[in-house]
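Journal club prep — side note

Before the paper discussion, L.F. wants everyone to see what a predicted structure for a comparable chain looks like in token form. Sequence:
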Amino acid sequence: MNGLDAVVSGIIDSSVKKVTGVPGYPITGLMDALGDKIKHEWSINEKVALEIALGSSVCGDRSAVITKHVGMNILSDPLVTSAIHTIGAGVVIFAGDDPGVEKSQNEQDSRFYGLIAEVPVFDPKTPKNAYLCVKEAFMLSEKVKTPVIIRLTDRLLKSDGDIIRKNEAATSRQIDKKIWNYTMLGKHQRFHQESFPHMCKYAENSKLNTYDKKGNYGIISSGFLSSLADSIIPAGFSHLPSRSSIPCQLTWLTVL
């Protein structure tokens, strides 16, 4: 299947109950491909879309938000705040980037929102990897109690590959109301004592990140471009394709 179908399959197999979003290139087809399999709706703007998803999360339902890179600017307010206030069930934001500005008003890199909001970012390489990233993202979101971002591009969504689907029922997880007893300072301290260290540990040990050591020199790549790098990298060069990262400095280099 192609990358778009792989992402849809990952959403379905993750027992997601609610999908919201705003149409735009290259992610409009992602919402359309859900069909009648999951309750989904276009929202008036990206901020509202994320707020609806967060509301579903608090009630114990996994949710997803679909937006293009420009929409990340609109939803950044609740995104940054939710990381400190915590969530319930998993929330994943699918950010459609447009490298080269094919059909957008500007060119942005959504991975930087991992740094701004201090949340994990996944940057899939292939359809198989995209499916696994979706599954991992929802589980990680619940462990660290923050939304997780998955970066998508048109070339990834149109690329072909094989995947092995695994449907696992998700346990309903509502927000821990004890967080409301914390002061804002206390919430911030809890985040850096509990959530952030877990993100670091996950990125350092994630099986999604592989290292092909062939020599003393090499390159680091991220996302779909990793598959292109594989085809042109010189013999004897090492290659580190990063697919999952934590919000430190440059998000796609944090596995080092």
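L.F.'s comment for the group: The first strand starts at residue 18 and ends at 21. Keep this in mind when we get to the figures.
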